[in-house]
Amino acid sequence: MPNQLLQLIVPPAAEDVVAEWLLERDDVPGFTSAPVSGHGSSERSMTLAEQVAGRSRRVMFVIHLPTPVAASVLADLRADFPGSGIHYWVVPVLEHGRLE
């Protein structure tokens, strides 16, 4: 079964609730999160301070999942977090493993 890398870009105010939501799911074995900065021309989604700084603070969640699970997580995100401003993308995982 092919695997996908689901990446979520989440506003900082939603970081804890999204992390908890992911941790409560039996189909998500784990994830990585990191603070990131968004840069671009979408000023309407930026606070005044972010516009002055030229970047918006966000949190990125990275989740490696089988394709059907990634689709299910996205469907549930749409249902549970409407209007949240979460940005996402899904890319195929060509290879994965663990060096031990």
TrEMBL record:
InterPro entries: DUF3240 (IPR021634), N-reg_PII-like_a/b (IPR011322), N-reg_PII/ATP_PRibTrfase_C (IPR015867). Pfam families: DUF3240 (PF11582). This is DUF3240 domain-containing protein. It comes from Thiorhodococcus minor.
